[in-house]
Structures are given as structure tokens and as C-alpha cells.
Amino acid sequence: MAELKTKRTNASVTAFLKRVRDDTRRRDCLAVVRIMKRATRATPKMWGTSIVGFGSYHYRYASGRHADWFLTGFAPRKQDLTLYIMAGPARYKPLLAKLGKYKTGRACLYIKRMADVNRTVLQQLVSASVRHMKQASGRAS
Q: What's the pTM value of the predicted model, to 2 decimals?
């Protein structure tokens, strides 16, 4: 069985964010850090080389495979700022209706810039997902 490539590392989140070339994207990343720290009460950690994750939980697949993952996180990608909403953004349709401009994937929320979204609603969305993941996993930190 293949091992997950994306794992928590000891790399510096601060150094990683300083390497974000676009000033607006870097400021947006710092805003997301504040939102996710508030939701998790956790220190950000690098997961792999390009994801900033907050907190962790242990999960087990039906196949018996298991792993640790972050409760929420983000990655400053070239096209979008990718926010990992592990409970799945579709679960929060009433909040999404008030969020602003975004796209979604299975567990991802894609935004171009923070100016496109309502930060209060984003805080509520991230917090709700973190609460859900903590309850669902029973052993989250």
C-alpha cells in the first residue's frame, strides 16, 4: 500500500509565505492564517512543500489504511488560493450563498483573492468545518 506523500514537516511556514511573490497573494495568505488559527487554535505547520495546515486528525479508510491529516489548511497556487475545507464546502450552502466569488471542489474552496469574499462568512465556514471534523474524528487536535 502506497504511503501518503504529503505529511507534516518541520519546514518554516513564515519562510514559505515570504517566498510568495505576489504581494496581494502574500497578504491574502496572512489573512487566511489568522482565520484558520482562530478556527483551530493551532499553530500553522507545513504539510509537504506547499500546503499550510492547522491542527490534525486521524482517519481510517474502509480498506483499513489510515493516516493523519490537517483539520483545515490552504495553499497559494498560481491560479487561486486553495482553502481545504475538509468537511466539504457543499455541506455549507447557506454560508456559500453569502461568501462572494469562489469555486469549489470536493474538499476545496478556490478563491482568486480575499477581496472577492466576505471574511466574516469565510471565518464562519472554516470554523464550522473544523468543528465538524473534530466531532467526526473524535481525536482531533
A: 0.91
